[in-house]
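Weekly modeling sync, notes
Attendees: S.R. (lead), two postdocs, one rotation student

Agenda item 3: backlog of single-chain predictions. S.R. asked that every request posted to the team notebook include the full sequence so nobody has to chase files. The rotation student volunteered to paste the first one in as an example of the format we agreed on. Action items at the bottom.

Example entry:
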Amino acid sequence: MQDAITTLIKNYDVTGRYLDRDAMDRLKSYFETGTARVQAAAAVNTNAAAIVKQAGSALFSDLPELIRPGGSAYTTRRYAACLRDMDYYLRYATYAWVAGNTDVLNERVLAGLRETYNSLNVAIGPTVIGIGILKDIVRTRVAEAGIENSAFLDEPFDHMIRELGETDV
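Predicted structure, as returned to the notebook:
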C-alpha cells in the first residue's frame, strides 16, 4: 500500500522529473488535511460496529427482499457475511483516508471481488447501495464529531461504488 506522498514521488521519479507546482500543491493539500483525516478515521473506528449495524439496518429496510428466502442475505450465515463485508469496506475506507490514496482499495478489496460475488450469487447492486449508505452515515458521524475539513470522506466510497457499479445496465 502506498500513501499519497509515495505515489506522487514514485510517479515523478519514473518520469525523471522534479516536483513541479502541481506536485507541491498536492503535497500541501495532503498535509493540510492530515489531521482531519486521522480524526475522521478515529471517529469512525470508535463507532465502527454501530455504523455497520446502522448501515445494515438501512439496507435491509430499503431492500427487504435481500433477507427473504432466496435473497443474498438470507440465512444467518449470509446475513453475517454481508455485515462483515460492510465492515471491510468501512475499514479500508479509513485506510484510504489516512493514506490519501485509494490504491489500498484496489489491492485489498476490489481485486477479484466482482468475480467472487458473481460466483457466490451475491448481488452486486445492493452491495453498491450499501456502500453508499455507509458513506452517508460516515459523513453524518464525522460532522457530529466536529471535523469540518472533510472533503476527502467521499473519495474511497465513490471509488468502490464506481469500480463495482454496473456498467451494462
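Discussion: group reviewed the output briefly. The chain is about 75% helix and 0% strand.
Action items: rotation student to repeat for the remaining queue; S.R. to check formatting next week.
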